[in-house]
Amino acid sequence: MPALTQSPYEVLLDFTNDTHDCATIQLLRDYGRNPSAIVLLQPGDSVTLVLDAGSVYKYALKSRSKVANVSARSWRDIRCEMSQLFSTGSPSRTSQRASPVPLCNGVTVDHVWRDYRFNVWNDS
Prior knowledge:
Layout: E1 10-16, E2 23-27, E3 38-41, E4 46-52, E5 57-63, E6 66-72, E7 78-81, H1 82-86, E8 101-103, E9 107-114
Parallel strand pairs: 1-7
Antiparallel strand pairs: 1-4, 2-3, 2-5, 5-6, 6-9, 8-9
């Protein structure tokens, strides 16, 4: 009898911008380098990303000058509101890492920090 093989399947990761500001999502490895790989979400917009179940994906989500570096790994569909990601702590001017914060059943906030290099808003 042949062995059962478990083929990879896809899960959906839905990010919703439930804030009052525009926000962006970018693969973390491309953050600040590849402007064509950025998704801009207006307030109330959402984007659905297709992931391989069990694989780890890392994203940088930015709203104003606040950036949340997140990891996503799941075996089922995920819905995540962006306000949850930015409320895990108050970022300082320097990048300070804290313990990762699990949210949204598979999305973990690795750290939240301020990025003033590309700040087009005035939110001092």
